[in-house]
C-alpha cells in the first residue's frame, strides 16, 4: 500500500489488539478511490499490529435484487 493517500474520517470504534482505537480512513489511490477502510492508529514500528480491513457499506436490499 505504498503511495496511499488517505483522509481521516471519524473514529471507527474498533479496538485493535494493541489496545488503541482504530481509525476510519478513505483511500484515494487509483484502484480504490473513495473506498473506506479501518486501520490501527499505531504502525507496526510504533508497537501496533498493522490492523486493516475494508469498511464497505451494506448493500441496500433493492441493489441486492439487481445484483
Automatic annotation (TrEMBL):
<dbReference type="Pfam" id="PF06839">
    <property type="entry name" value="Zn_ribbon_GRF"/>
</dbReference>
<keyword id="KW-0862">Zinc</keyword>
<dbReference type="InterPro" id="IPR010666">
    <property type="entry name" value="Znf_GRF"/>
</dbReference>
<keyword id="KW-0863">Zinc-finger</keyword>
<protein>
    <recommendedName>
        <fullName>GRF-type domain-containing protein</fullName>
    </recommendedName>
</protein>
<feature type="domain" description="GRF-type">
    <location>
        <begin position="16"/>
        <end position="58"/>
    </location>
</feature>
<dbReference type="GO" id="GO:0008270">
    <property type="term" value="F:zinc ion binding"/>
</dbReference>
<keyword id="KW-0479">Metal-binding</keyword>
Amino acid at each position: 500500500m505504498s503511495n496511499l493517500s488517505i483522509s481521516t474520517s471519524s473514529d471507527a470504534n474498533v479496538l485493535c489488539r494493541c489496545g488503541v482505537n482504530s481509525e476510519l480512513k478513505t483511500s484515494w489511490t487509483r484502484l480504490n478511490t473513495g473506498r473506506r477502510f479501518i486501520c490501527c492508529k499505531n504502525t507496526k514500528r510504533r508497537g501496533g499490529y498493522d490492523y486493516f480491513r475494508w469498511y464497505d457499506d451494506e448493500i441496500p436490499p433493492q441493489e441486492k435484487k439487481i445484483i
